[in-house]
Specification:
Blueprint lengths: L5 E4 L5 E5 L5 E5 L11 H23 L4 H10 L3 E2 H8 L3 H14 L2 E6 L9 E5 L5 E7 L4 E6 L5 E7 L7 H18 L7 E8 L3 E2 L4 E2 L9 H6 L5 E6 H12 L7 E6 L3 E7 L2 E3 L13 E2 L13 E2 H5 L1 H10 L7 H9 L3 H25 L3 E5 H4 L3 H14 L2 H4 L3 E4 L6 H14 L2 H10 L1
Parallel strand pairs: 7-10, 10-13, 14-19, 19-20
Antiparallel strand pairs: 1-2, 2-3, 4-6, 5-6, 7-8, 8-9, 11-12, 14-15, 15-16, 17-18
Length: 445
């Protein structure tokens, strides 16, 4: 039997980060002797086998609990299993396994997927996680766009619709459009409101994650979950748009990286931090608001000595658009700036490169303080080409301590336009498929 797992080596050669199915990471020690210190391919193979064995043992121990929810985690983590295999891995009685599999099948989360090889007699049935059992609705708002999507329980996008327009200051207008769009998408794939297990929303601006309320002009303290519940009586989770982008990027591009900093450079500037595989929101949900950080005067920047302003006012797409527009260039939004850069406009390229340097001044402190493995730069300006990132690298590698930058990667986002949808879906899935949530769902049914 094999257990599917994702593993990433970290600084110590005898440790790894194990990604569990609930998106949590566990640090494991690799029990190898001093004499087999990755000197060659055979040593590495032995070490990888040790990791796999410890991964299976760790996960089996964690699933040897009393509820069906824990059994579901085991099926989410690996391949389809027979009841005998599940009993062997969990050390539970086969009758207990049969009862829990039946309860999970009644909810649709587990389904028969075939038969295993027979050792004599009737081939045993195999059971696996059914990601199509429920639907997650995701709503990803940026300052100038709205993206509504549907996903299955593996955060795979199965339908989406994007609107490139200014998000209204009236939350009922914005959310009304999103909810109407979600209902239309459900109808297109033949699913109904009862199939929706949760709604994940990313919005620009600080969000109090525990309540789903945010501070944004027109939206201040608006009860987003209560409004959503009028259409979808399901779990509703609201977070900052950069946080859901970071979750999506981490899940799709960097699943084995434990420490990642995501920076969005678009109309505004914001960041999200993943440490040891977990998104860090801070005490009130405002972690990562780098756009509000004051950037001190730098003689190399070309600014006046008394010109001290925050990062958004200095280096965001909207700030660059204002500057370029004042010089006669057609730039009203960050996308216009990105278009000028891609078209080879020298003034736009120079301004973007300097914006990267200014952003690097702030990120250099973050690198020394947090020591991330990867910095991902996204947003309309972050994905416009190499000029912004080149400016960031120029400053970060010069100002941060050498040990912190020795293996640091600073890269553009690679997760595409659905990153926010994937992140919002994963945020919901982690909660609704948690063992306690599944056990409560079974008890209620």
């Amino acid at each position: 039997m094999e257990l599917d797992y994702s593993v990433a080596t970290i600084a110590q050669p005898r440790h790894c980060i194990l990604r569990m199915p609930d998106a949590k990471y566990v640090k494991l020690s690799i029990m190898s002797s001093e004499s087999s210190d990755l000197r060659g391919g055979q040593d590495k193979k032995v070490q990888e086998m040790s990791v796999a064995q410890q991964a299976m043992r760790t996960f089996a121990e964690s699933s040897r609990q009393s509820g069906p929810g824990d059994l579901l985690q085991l099926l989410r983590a690996g391949n389809a299993r027979t009841k005998a295999e599940l009993a062997s891995m969990t050390r539970l009685a086969r009758s207990t396994i049969a009862q829990r599999v039946r309860l999970l099948m009644d909810l649709g989360f587990v389904a028969p997927v075939g038969t295993a090889a027979s050792s004599g007699g009737r081939p045993p049935s195999t059971f696996g996680f059914n990601p199509g059992a429920r639907i997650v609705v995701t709503i990803d708002f940026g300052a100038t766009h709205g993206n509504v999507a549907l996903s299955d329980l593996n955060a795979q996008i199965i339908g989406s619709r994007r609107g490139n327009r200014q998000v209204p200051d009236d939350p009922e207008v914005a959310l009304g459009w999103a909810l109407d769009t979600a209902v239309e998408l459900l109808a297109e794939i033949g699913r109904g409101l009862k199939d929706v297990v949760g709604v994940g929303i990313g919005v620009p601006g600080p969000v109090e994650h525990s309540t789903g309320r945010l501070t944004k002009p027109g939206w201040d303290r608006f009860d987003v979950p209560a409004y959503i519940h009028q259409t979808f009586p399901a779990v509703v989770l609201v977070d900052n748009d950069v946080n859901v982008l970071a979750i999506g990027e981490h899940r799709t591009v960097w699943p084995t990286v434990g420490n990642l900093l995501y920076l969005k450079v678009a109309t505004g500037i914001g960041a999200a931090l993943i440490m040891n595989g977990e998104l860090q929101r801070g005490a009130q949900g405002t972690a990562g608001e780098l756009g509000h950080v004051q950037v001190p005067y730098n003689p190399d920047s070309g600014r006046n000595p008394g010109d001290v302003c925050n990062l958004t006012a200095l280096a965001s797409g909207s700030a660059l658009a204002t500057m370029l527009s004042a010089q006669g260039f057609p730039a009203e939004t960050s996308r216009d700036v990105a278009a000028l850069v891609r078209a080879g406009n020298a003034t736009a390229i120079q301004a973007t490169r300097q914006a990267g340097r200014d952003i690097g001044e702030v990120l250099a402190t973050c690198v020394d303080l947090l020591n991330p493995e990867v910095i991902v730069i996204g947003g309309s300006l972050g994905e416009s080409g190499e000029h912004l990132i080149a400016g960031v690298k120029e400053t970060v590698y010069r100002r941060s301590i050498p040990l912190a930058t020795q293996h640091l990667m600073i890269v553009p986002s690679k997760s595409g336009s659905n990153a926010g949808a994937v992140g919002a879906a994963a945020m919901v899935i982690e909660q609704v498929l948690a063992s306690a949530s599944i056990d409560a769902m079974i008890a209620a049914s």
